[in-house]
Amino acid sequence: MQLAALETYLTTLLPKLGVNKQRELVRLMYEIAKRDQKSPAQILPLEKNLNFERAKKILLAQRYPVNYKTARKDQFYLPKLELDPAQTADLTPRSFSPKTVYIETSVKDTPLAARVRRAFPQAVFKETDGKTQVGSPYFSKRLDTLLIHREKYDFLKPCPCSCGSAGCGYNLINLGFGCRFECEYCFLQQYQNLHAVLLPANVDEFLAKIDGASFRTGPFDRPRIGSGEFTDSLVFDDITQYSAQIVPFFRARPHLQFEFKTKSVNIGGLLQAGGAENVVVSWSVNAAPIIDLAEHFTPHLTARLQAACEVARAGYRLGFHFDPVVIYDGYQQDYALTVEEMADTLPHDKIAWISVGTLRFSRELKKQIETRFPANTLLDGEFLLDFDGKMRYSEGQRLEAYRFLVPLLRKTFPKAVVYLCMEDPHIAKLF
Ligand code: SF4
Hints:
By secondary structure, the chain is α/β, with parallel strands linked by helices. It has helices spanning about 5-15, 20-35, 40-45, 50-65, 110-120, 190, 205-210, 235-240, 240-250, 270-275, 290-295, 300-315, 330-345, 365-370, 395-410, 425-430; strands at about 100-105, 125-130, 145-150, 155-160, 170, 180-185, 195-200, 225, 255-260, 280-285, 295, 315-325, 350-360, 360, 385, 390, 415-420.
């Protein structure tokens, strides 16, 4: 739906609207037109005595058919629609092949720097002092630049979770920044301000911080430490070979457990490192239509589960994250099929934990998603401003999703810990 066409139609219908009022109605009409494939006249036909209040009421009722009557007025978020075609994501299949590789002087002689030189012979290599800004002005061009650096400050921290959400005692080491997949809901597209892939060459210094640290355990038997907040834990592992350092380190510390979180099947390093009972390799899983439509360039569910079986055979335990669960017509049948495929494929006794979290995003991320993925279907759901300032499905819709999926997972995998992630504490404690 062309924005200009909507604006013209509204101006014809309600010629005296102020800027802010028009902005709200344009957004509502745009979202309805995109979801329902309707023309402006079908969405808001001319009627006698139509005014702003009446038009907004008609449009809100159409846009939020499930929640219109129960949501508070201030839960509807109707910012100006700003679509910038220059920001649209490039969904042409491609391999990771940076054009420019910057290597900080302090790590130029490390094994990672040497591997990167061998892996990308076509790239232009530049040495940097670590102070010069690198990368593209555009997030969509982030894969053009790779920076190998020495992390100096940000080694180990408790998972920030979401303000006010139920925590799970997670601790993070951030081994890298940036990802070569294009998940439409990825928070990095709004969060990452340096548009490049960053990989630290001093993993030994990250690991050294762990021995002296004290950890929260949360609801688990041992503290959990993981990578994969600002990148996928394994997507670059063939280049970084972080797993070759991490696995032996944790194997020697059975009082801790480490989690790799991934959607990739890049498991060669893990298989070579040999298994460890306290190293959990977790896959983000989803309903097949969501993987197809919204997780661009990621391996499909069956490939992820096959990789999981291989690492389980090598001696690792497994984790799975149903995150984000997306609510749409028929979603329960699709998620049930994913659970069924997992049940048929995986060694059940190797599954340590499964988390569940419904789709949520910040206001800024919503704008990024709609401008980078104008054909997305994720945003067609009914998202309301929620307890932590993020946009979520209504409490009723989330409860329905959890009441369906959590018992199903607990029944299918009785030995796994099944928990909710980033959820309102009063909802989390119901499960
Ligand atoms: S795999 Fe994770 S880090 Fe990579 S694009 Fe998807 S959500 Fe973002």
